[in-house]
Sequence to fold (202 residues):
Amino acid sequence: MDARIKQRVAFALKCKPSEVPEDIEGLSKALDKRRAELKKAKEAKHG
Amino acid sequence: MANPYLDTYRQAGEQVSSTGEGRHVMIEEFNLIHPAHADGLVDKGDPVAFWDGVGVALKSATSINESIPIETEGIWRLSVMNTGLNTFGSIVVGQVLFIDASGVVYDEWSTSFTIFGYALQPIADPGQGAPITEVIAVKVHWMYPYWFYTTEVEV
Fold:
């Protein structure tokens, strides 16, 4: 994965660029996990 | 009155609008972010992103070096996920949509790769439940994701 793309994905995952999964399945899972965390945070804030 | 884009006989990846010149760009497959497939290559009808650019692939690739025509505008029927993470929960007509790094078109910016376009059909709020994915008409539009240019990112 291109370094600039990794940097952008790292922003979305709130991780370091070196921690961005290289494979599409891993990337998809990481994005779903991040969204699940955000959903929990939204529920906690707004009920 | 029914939503004018509602057509249960149409499928994801079909164009609703007519095409026009100057909207098609040629992008090598390896530059495209697209949904996962067994062969790892973009398929015709896939929503794609290439850095700030977005569109719909007009051809399936046979290799990563192949140049693929991308339609960067138009109205397309695409699979869209509503996570409910957007401020209001539901997706309404005219609401901005995003694409993530795995090729998912959806409602939430902070985990996205770039802006993809605008919804022309609504999707209900999933509430506390699992995200809702439906095929809806999407106005594809290439614009820059401003937050990447106003936020300092870790290198």
Summary: Chain A has a mean pLDDT of 91. Chain A touches chain B at residues 4-5, 7-13, 16-17, 24-25, 27-28, 31, 34-35, 38-39, 42-43 (CB under 8 Å). Residues 3-46 of chain A form one domain. Helices of chain A lie at 3-13, 24-46.
